[in-house]
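ok so heres the complex, two chains, lmk if somethin looks off
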Amino acid sequence: MQDPGISVLFKGSNFIRLLEGLSIALRISFLSVVISLLLGFFIGVLISGKNRFLKIVYGIYLNTVRIMPQMVLLFIVFFGSTRVLGINIDAEVSSIIVFAFWGSAEMADLVRGAIKSIPVHQFESAASLGMKKRTIYLKIILPQTLRRLVPSSINLVTRMIKTTSLVMMIGVVEVLKVGQQIIEANRTTSPNIAFWMYGTVFLLYFIACFPISRLSKSLEEKWKLA
Amino acid sequence: MSFIEVEHVSKEYISEGKSFPALKDISISIEKGEIFGVIGLSGAGKSTFVRCLNYLEKPTSGVVRIDGTDLSELKEAQLREKRQKIGMIFQHFNLLMQRNVLDNVAFSLEVSGMKKKEARKKALELLKKVGLEDKKKAYPAQLSGGQKQRVAIARALATEPEIILCDEATSALDPETTRRILEILKDINKEYGITIVVITHAMSVVEEICDRVAVLDSGELKEMGYVSRVFKNPHSKAAKRLIYDSERSVG
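and the predicted structre for the whole thing:
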């Protein structure tokens, strides 16, 4: 009988290697997500003001990120930086730079949208109660903005985690790359291995992303009254 | 001297390099304890006018005096203090959706430094005043429009205002609910002597509660006088049109 392929998963240190790969993917995701959320929020607040210059600069930034495939960005930062700037950026650091660059742009746009969606009446009624501008922003506008941000920003976070699978293109050995290596090594002995391996990688991504979407869901439920 | 004095107030909005006049040389005096109506079709400048009374909008020219104080001479902090004496309620209620009814009323008191317990006690009294004490734990999403507006009134009363501005406060409500809200406003006016300025496009609202009325049209003051006189004998085209339209919609 043919080897069902699943046994390869537990052969030697294969499974440990997969988990190590996953941890690299998650490390890149986590760091770039944290940077994106913070930086994106900051940029989003900035461009919600009246400064035309900032808005134009941000417009170019956002469109650059949107038009350019993430993979091209990765290549530019990883290979381009060595050639043009003569500095050697580690592949993992390059990945984090690219993902944070992308995530911040998208996050800023989400924040801008959320702030804009708060009706001007909210500001007016707080002001008519004699509240300070700072109080109005911190206690009235910000909490509502955060609530509105939850679904869209969680969506961004899971998209970023998924897209980290691209970083193997610049030589980061993350979970997908490990999977491919195991497939290559066992192709002859177990022909079905590709199915089992990619299936496992899928499951690992699912396990990583599912709790995050659950969290989003439960937050939405909790704030349903809002 | 009148309690609220608006002298030659004009307001222009600049948009894409062009200026649009929203108010043109408006002068109105409102007495203490009066219920004063400002009526006009949408775009007439009523909302801009009422926002000039608490300086949510600063007039381009002219003077707004509240109880003798020229608002343009106030510093930021003094203006905020003044605004606490000028409550405002809106068409869309503007409650904080994530807080319950009691906290919505208590919130502004807490922010201005009152202790939480004290603020809630006072908030509860105000909710009794508007007949909503049994809804204190409810969230705005669970209330009807009329109930939300009553919460908004309680909130406006929390800072013990001398004036309440109503910006289309009943426009989103059905006639029966509107009547109840107007009753509450009348009570407040009588009990506390609070001056009330009512902005509306509905003649019936003016008829129901106002002493005097001003008719605005395209940013201009067309007519002003006692409600009974304006209704019986409107001089301006704008007033005639408003009265004629409202009669037609009733009949």
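quick notes: The first strand of chain B starts at residue 4 and ends at 15. thats all i got rn
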